[in-house]
């Protein structure tokens, strides 16, 4: 956030319904984040806003819950040897720059086209990124599944790793060596997307997999470190302007820390392609959700003339589909986890 | 509990050579060759015992059975060490009884420390060790990296089905009386439950402090400026307490990371060269003929 906040913020009164709702949404979001590295937070801002929380407070509180969740998730996955801290911290710092660039771009669009134009831009970016990247990830997941777990690096990543461009960086856990100049665009794009749609991981994880050349397990785990760095930076800025409602943050954390641990445990049971599969499924369903949100903004800009009833219906459908995306992802993760767990239990090595 | 023995090892060429060497040398000039059988579990796997005894019987070798306690300083009031010693005692007794039936000599040792280092030390200790057989739970590559003799592992699994082809006779399988150290679920569960209560109480305390003083908290936490650090510090504290609580909670319920996932990550990745190939130097050079 750039510049002082002049509006008076009205923090909401919490009741039993809102408390249970936030804990449950937090759990599902945490589960998805722990598994695919991100993607659990995008539904939280609209969910909080549906309870009457002002937009800026919802974004700030969501950001404030994101970094401790990412911290706990990355520690858990580090214990499983999946996190490349060096890669995560370097990319996180550049992603933080991307966030600042993204905010400047957003402010510029807001200035030129107004609130409706800005919202349209966000939804348009949402749909484009999710459809393109989601399709690529889904195609790769299906291909990998058919290839029975052959998860060799993408061609472009292999090529980029051969280019000797100072400074070359070696990442032991990710098991790769690549020029820093190829990390920067991926990191900046991650940060810019995070500033635009609150989920940088939809670019960060595929970028790590297909451009940098990390496996999906390492990519999703390292994305948690990036999310931590970005989230901490973002929280400090929001908290500086007094926008964080710590009560909302703690309620979401109450559920999400249970979820993120379970999601991280899930990664140790499933095959590599499952992470891609879950991520692509969520991305494609969310793209449909955002598609239904576009007519509202087009109406506001007088480009289309949908009736008010239709717009309200489509907005509700958009939110419903977004929740469905998260629930579908969570369901796939839970089913895969418990199925793989029972299979492993059926073949226990004789150890004493 | 049935057991499926999938021991598919063939006699390695090194063993055949060693057998030939052993027969060609006069007995006075050499120490009795032996097979080093290593486990880090309290109870050595019976397929490992059976395999080692069969090979030793064919080669006329002795067996040196080593139980290595890899966590001698584990902080549980010495319970793990006691469990290990009891399980080892039972395992050695069984091993010796099995070996006695075939007339194979078994020497047992209890060691502690890193497996690879123990194997290396034993191989250089004057024992005529021909090769090493390792039990499940030991990384072959890690041992082989330091061992001066070949290292082999025995792969076996236990299934709940119990009647699949290839299983050993149930009568041949001895259910351990002593609790093995790798089966620490009861201890771990207790520790997890304890942690669950400790960190759960801490988390509840933090939440109570915030929610019972909502007005005060919201007044100071939203002031901005230097008060920026207040919400950040609180979420860090909550992430520590609540993170440990949730971790212990799932562990107490028995939901933990897959044991079989060790090495999965590295297997799926490609080898990265330690350094890149040196590029061809195409710069022009001047040659001087003197």
Please characterize this protein's 3D structure:
The complex is a heterodimer of chains A (352) and B (290). Helices cover 76% and strands 3% of the residues of chain A. Chain A is an all-alpha fold and 352 residues long. In chain A, strands 1-2 form a two-stranded antiparallel ribbon. In chain A, a hairpin with a 4-residue loop joins strand 1 and strand 2. Chain A is globular, with a radius of gyration of 20 Å. In chain A, 56% of the residues are buried. Chain B is an alpha/beta fold and 290 residues long. Chain B has helices spanning 13-24, 46-59, 79-102, 115-123, 140-146, 185-211, 214-221, 229-252, 264-268, and strands at 33-39, 62-69, 106-112, 128-134, 151-153, 158-159. Chains A and B meet through helix 3, helix 8, helix 9, helix 11 and strand 3 of A and strand 6, helix 6, helix 7, helix 8 and helix 9 of B.
Radius of gyration of chain A (Å): 20 Å
**Taking strands numbered 1, 2, ... along the chain, how are they ordered across the largest sheet of chain A?**
1-2
Distance between the termini of chain A: 57 Å
Helix content of chain B: 40-55%
Overall mean confidence score, pLDDT of chain A: 85
What is the global morphology of chain A? globular
Query: Roughly how much helix do the residues of chain A carry, as a percent range?
Result: over 70%
Uncertain segments of chain B of ≥5 residues (pLDDT<50)? 1-12, 20-29, 159-167, 262-277
Outline of chain B, from the CA principal axes? Answer: flat
The Cα radius of gyration of chain B reads 28 Å
Tell me the β content of chain B: 5-15%
